[in-house]
Amino acid sequence: MTDKMITTEHLTKQFGNLKAIDSISIEIKKGEIFGFLGPNGAGKTTTINILTGQMKATDGIAKILGIDVNKHPVKVRENIGIVPEQENPPSFLTPVEYLEFISKIRHLKENKKDIDFWFDFLEFNEHKNTLCKDLSRGTKQKLMIAQAFIHNPQLVFIDEPLINLDPMIQKKIKTYIINYAKKGNSIFISTHVLEIAQELCDKICIINRGKIIACDSLKNLTKESKGNLETAFISLVEKNK
Fold first, then answer.
1. Cα 94 from Cα 133, distance rounded (Å)
2. How would you list the strands of the sheet with 186-190, edge to edge?
3. Which of 10, 12, 200, 240 could form a disulfide with 213 if both were Cys (CB 3.0 to 4.6 A apart)?
4. What is the pTM (predicted TM-score) of this model?
5. How much is the pLDDT for 226?
6. What's the pLDDT score for residue 128?
7. Nearest one of 174, 175, 183, 229 to 205, comparing CA atoms
């Protein structure tokens, strides 16, 4: 298995005359927590949809865990975890039924212990038998985090990881993500909350109007702003309007 978890070369997506992403090239290595940042409409969601095999690129190459995502999107999704921005567990299932379903389609055997871990860890045992349609947004987000990590994937995509969660659960998840990466796994985080990116990410990539305007280690990217990611982000976006 390659140590390059994600590689893109001149990745492009065009909708009519609009280039939603314009020839972007990025690389994410084993064990990295990668922050993907940008203003609204910058191309973040389109990029994630392509990298997770939910949308085909117009041009360029994207390899996930060494797999060509345009040619083998299902194989890619079999080997990664995804936490979407919008929580969307099936309304007609309970959380425990949903995690049992995920375990079956991922061919996980005797997975009750792992399922129970997530209910305990994210503190929503009392909702394990509630229909998903009746869950709060925060509880739905806990469930989507659990389904993304339950098969211990080498690579997890997380879109706005903590937005609906209380501070105690946020702290737990941040610690879990850091420790998960230390085991050699990689995390791709897209967020508008720059404090989260500064706290968690080793490497930061900023996209604006479909183009990558900066991509470097957090340390190098914030060198001129005295370690402040918010200042660096605003300055770079303003220069690349």
1. 9
2. 80-83, 155-159, 186-190, 33-37, 203-208, 211-217
3. 240
4. 0.93
5. 87
6. 95
7. 229
Residues of the chain short of pLDDT 50, as ranges, are 1
Cα separation, 94 vs 170, whole angstroms: 23
Residue 68 structure tokens: 């060509």
pLDDT for the residue 2: 64
- Report the 3 state secondary structure along the chain: CCCEEEEEEEEEEEECCEEEEEEECCEEECCCEEEEECCCCCCHHHHHHHHCCCCCCCEEEEEECCEECCCCHHHHHHCEEEECCCCCCCCCCCHHHHHHHHHHHCCCCCCHHHHHHHHHHCCCHHHCCCCHHHCCHHHHHHHHHHHHHCCCCCEEEEECCCCCCCHHHHHHHHHHHHHHHHCCCEEEEECCCHHHHHHHCCEEEEEECCEEEEEEEHHHHCCCCCCCHHHHHHHHHHHCC
The residues that bridge with 155 in the sheet, in sequence order, are 80, 186
Residue type at 236? Answer: L
Tokens encoding 44: 């973040």
Amino acid at 212: I
